[in-house]
Recover the amino acids of this structure.
């Protein structure tokens, strides 16, 4: 019994490392240091933007080529990824759909300073949004927000605050406690979570944006598709929402396997 209690205490006090595992390797990376062009993928620009609480967030900008009008897209990655890991996905959004893409690392990830938290990650995406607006002077009605897994939380938060064109959520969750409750042992600790990330609550109201796309694989064992079912049922009461159920897709391959399904909405938005 003492051993189980000790294990439980350990899980609770180390929850940040379990929710944000990428910060472990980032401990050994000096934050706030600009990369040289030789350290960046071809065509990518790196910037640091200061948050309202003085953290430095690294942003990669993928400028669109051969486009007369800026079509902005903010991409928020998952909890076990960083800018380098998700470059291939941001590059696809940039090269094939001709969006000017803003990808970023949350505080504590990669070269971004600080330590991740729910409030902090919300501040991070607000900072990215403001930076992108100042950089490219776009209309919010042209903005696409794309979040994958944990990334569904900050883009949902931003979508609840601003106007936008399209919100795409890949493998989203209704809330962090709900996601934890899906795991047999960890559900015992849902009441002790420091973060909530209440996506369902944030989006269950009339949004200023025009459309929400939910994309989920039926083989997702990390965040079950039941989360998207519930999001769809609630969001459709207030908004134009489409659910894409991808047969055979799991959590980490949902982007590639479903791209042709939700990519058509990107193309439609880009042509407006």
């Amino acid at each position: 019994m003492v051993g189980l209690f000790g294990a439980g205490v350990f899980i609770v006090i180390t929850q940040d490392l379990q929710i944000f595992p990428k910060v472990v390797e980032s401990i050994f990376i000096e934050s706030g240091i600009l990369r040289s062009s030789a350290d960046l993928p071809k065509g990518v620009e790196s910037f640091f933007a200061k948050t309202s609480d003085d953290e430095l967030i690294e942003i990669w900008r993928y400028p669109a080529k051969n486009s007369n009008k800026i079509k902005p897209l903010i991409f928020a990655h998952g909890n076990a990824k960083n800018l380098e890991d998700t470059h291939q996905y941001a590059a696809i959004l940039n090269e094939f759909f001709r969006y000017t893409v803003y990808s970023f690392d949350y505080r504590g990830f990669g070269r971004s300073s600080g330590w991740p938290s729910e409030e902090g990650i919300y501040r991070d995406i607000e900072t990215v949004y403001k930076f992108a607006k100042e950089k490219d002077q776009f209309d919010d009605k042209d903005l696409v927000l794309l979040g994958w897994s944990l990334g569904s939380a900050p883009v949902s938060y931003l979508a609840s605050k601003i106007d936008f064109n399209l919100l795409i959520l890949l493998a989203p969750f209704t809330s962090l406690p709900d996601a934890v409750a899906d795991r047999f042992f960890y559900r015992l600790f849902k009441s002790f979570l420091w973060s909530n990330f209440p996506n369902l609550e944030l989006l269950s109201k009339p949004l200023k944006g025009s459309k929400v796309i939910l994309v989920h694989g039926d083989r997702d064992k990390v965040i079950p598709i039941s989360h998207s079912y519930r999001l769809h049922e609630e969001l459709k009461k207030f908004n134009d929402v489409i659910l894409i159920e991808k047969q055979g897709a799991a959590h980490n391959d949902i982007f590639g396997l479903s791209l042709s399904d939700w990519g058509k909405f990107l193309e439609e938005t880009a042509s407006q």
Summary: The beta strands are 45-50, 56-62, 72-76, 100-104, 144-148, 166-170, 211-217, 241-246. The longest strand covers residues 56-62. The mean pLDDT is 92.
